[in-house]
C-alpha cells in the first residue's frame, strides 16, 4: 500500500484553488495506479481537507492524525468544523497525539508523524517560512532532512494572505 501524507496552508487563495486541486488529484492518480492507497491528514481547513476529500474520492483509505484533545475548538468556521467531522467519520484509522491542547508543539508532532509515516509528502506550500512551529515550511524541511520525497503544489505568482 502506498501512503501519501499532506501538509499545507489553511488559506488557499481563490485564484490558486483550481490549480492546487488539479495538482493533488494528479498526484493521487499517479500513485493510486499501482495498488491501494492510504492518505494521511490532520484534516485542518484548507489543503488538508481538500486532500482528504480527493483521496477518498480516489478510493484511498484515510488516516486522520489529530494533534490534540481540543483540536475541534480551533475551527472558527462552522462549515470547516462540519467538514472535519464528516471526513473524520469516514476515516479508516484515527491517530491521536498525546497533547491535551492545540499548541504549536501539537501541530508539529502531528505533522512530523505524517511525514514519518508516509512514502511521499504532498505539500500545498507557497515556499515561504512557517508562520509558527509546525507550519507547512517546518514539516517540508523536516521531511526533506529525512530524505522523504516531497511534492510541492502551488500556483506560481500567487501569494496567500
Describe the structure.
- This protein is α/β, with parallel strands linked by helices.
- The chain has one domain (2-6, 22-153): Rossmann fold, CATH 3.40.50.
- The protein is 40% helix and 19% strand.
- It is globular, with a radius of gyration of 14 Å.
- 40% of the residues are buried.
- The mean pLDDT is 93.
- Helix tally equals 5
Within the largest sheet, what's the order of strands? 4-3-2-1-5-6
CATH topology: Rossmann fold
Low-pLDDT sequence parts: none
What is the total domain count? 1
Distance between the termini: 36 Å
Tertiary shape = globular
Helicity range: 40-55%
- What structural class is derived from the secondary structure elements? alpha/beta
- Rounded mean pLDDT is 93
The CATH architecture can be given as: 3-Layer(aba) Sandwich
Strand content: 15-25%
Main sheet record: 6 strands, parallel
- Whole-angstrom Rg: 14 Å
Spell out the helices and strands N to C: EHEHEHEHEHE
* Name of the CATH first level: Alpha Beta
* DSSP summary, beta strand count: 6
